[in-house]
Amino acid sequence: MSDSEEEECSDRQLKFVVLGDGTSGKTSLATRFAQEAFGKQYKQTIGLDFFLKRITLPGNVNVTVQVWDIGGQTIGGKMLDKYVYGAQAVLLVYDITNQQSFENLEDWYNVVKKVNEESETEPHVALVGNKIDLEHLRAVKVDKHLRFCQENHSSSHFVSAKTGDSVFLCFQRIAADLLDVKLNKAEMEQSQSVVKADIVNYNQEPMTRTINSPRSSMCTIQ
Ligand SMILES: Nc1nc2c(ncn2[C@@H]2O[C@H](COP(=O)(O)OP(=O)(O)OP(=O)(O)O)[C@@H](O)[C@H]2O)c(=O)[nH]1
Prior knowledge:
Shape: globular
InterPro entries: P-loop_NTPase, Small_GTP-bd, Small_GTPase
GO molecular function: G protein activity; GTP binding; metal ion binding
Protein name: Ras-related protein Rab-28 isoform X2
Largest sheet: 7 strands, mixed
Organism: Pogona vitticeps (central bearded dragon)
Distance between the termini: 40 Å
Bound molecules: guanosine-5'-triphosphate
Family: Belongs to the small GTPase superfamily. Rab family.
Order of helices and strands: HEHEEHEHHEHEHHE
């Protein structure tokens, strides 16, 4: 097989960095996307977690998405610039029930801007409002969210890592945009699948099961 043929067959790799305050749901989002799982228990990310997921975009375009899930406490730390460096996409995640998590995105975004100051290509910036299953507790107005997107030329996403609502669509839309793949309406609707919440039986062992998908993997760097 020639080099160019080999290149065509091999997957495109995209680096997605997920930023935002602690407890906004970054790990949950990454886990929902890469492993189709959700854990109710909060476990703080120290440093970063790393996930890989292979997806196929329309036209049989295979993409391996690297998801760099950055701990909320890394803001102001020495390593953050290094984690953000070279990202093709940055997901700025906030919790729609937590006003402060939205306000603080400015600090996260400033890090992204600083890292890319000298770079020729800008990453795709996506604003992600998480926890839409808690719409009744919404503290951040949709208008504010949309204004941020307009002012910063970012794409706009509302998701629930808990139910799975629009999570795959969010990652798929960003990857498609980066690779210039057009998604039609049917493809967008298809990936909107809502995953029903678990029924928990408290008499049984807590659910610590890991779903081992052959198409995804994860490791933790501390
Ligand atoms: N209701 C609801 N809860 C969520 C959702 N996403 C995450 N959570 C919960 O919010 C808490 C924090 O979620 P994490 O994914 O650990 O948050 P994080 O942003 O990774 O936090 P750090 O590791 O501190 O940066 C956990 O208890 C999750 O179960 C969601 O979509 N809906």
